[in-house]
């Protein structure tokens, strides 16, 4: 069965790299202790962008306007036991400034991004779309 998930990547960009804001997953399953982006299941009849905003508020405690959520990609991923369809949005992390949250900043250098993502303690599905996102932003920012 295909499970649809909306996630939000809070991010900021620097001349030497990218900062991603992640949360530590706490559960009794295989993803316990991994870093992940805010997000979760899309409810029946709910638009992916609505789910992204709802999940962000539930997990981070900060309400965001839909206009601040930028669509990046729709990304399918197959685990051995489940099929996922990610709706991926990103948001300017400066919108978090001065607001209480428990996200942790993780800095990734443009030069070492592939190795940083490959060795990161994040779910396998996230590694794939995260590298695509980093390459997209490098191109958008004119970084070769």
Number of alpha- plus pi-helical segments:
3
Name the overall outline.
globular
Class based on secondary structure composition and strand pairing: alpha+beta
Tell me, rounded to a whole number, the average pLDDT.
93
For the sheet with most strands, the description reads: 7 strands, mixed
Which sequence of SSEs, written as H and E, runs from N to C? EEEEHEEEHH
Question: Which regions have little confidence, pLDDT < 50, spanning 5+ residues?
Answer: none
**Distance between the terminal alpha carbons, to the nearest Å?**
40 Å
Tell how many strands the DSSP assignment holds. Answer: 7
- Rg of Cα set: 15 Å
> How large a portion of the residues is in β-strands, by DSSP E?
35-45%
Protein described:
The chain is α+β, with helices and mostly antiparallel strands and 144 residues long. 26% of the residues lie in helices and 35% in strands. The protein has helices at 48-60, 113-119, 124-141; strands spanning 2-14, 17-24, 35-36, 39-41, 70-78, 83-92, 104-109. Strands 1, 2, 3, 4, 5, 6 and 7 form a seven-stranded mixed beta sheet that branches. A hairpin with a 2-residue loop joins strand 1 and strand 2 (17-24). Helix 2 packs antiparallel against helix 3. The radius of gyration is 15 Å and the shape is globular.
């Amino acid at each position: 069965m295909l499970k649809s998930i909306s996630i939000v990547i809070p991010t900021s960009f620097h001349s030497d790299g990218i900062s991603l804001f992640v949360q530590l997953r706490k559960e009794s399953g295989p993803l316990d202790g991994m870093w992940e982006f805010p997000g979760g299941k899309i409810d029946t009849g709910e638009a992916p962008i609505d789910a992204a905003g709802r999940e962000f508020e539930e997990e981070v405690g900060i309400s965001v306007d839909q206009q601040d959520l930028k669509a990046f990609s729709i990304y399918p991923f197959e685990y051995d036991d489940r099929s996922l369809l990610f709706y991926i949005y990103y948001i300017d992390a400066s919108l978090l400034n001065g607001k209480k949250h428990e996200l942790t900043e993780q800095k990734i250098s443009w030069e070492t991004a592939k190795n940083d993502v490959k060795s990161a303690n994040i779910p396998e599905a996230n590694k794939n779309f995260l590298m695509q996102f980093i390459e997209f932003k490098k191109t958008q920012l004119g970084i070769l």
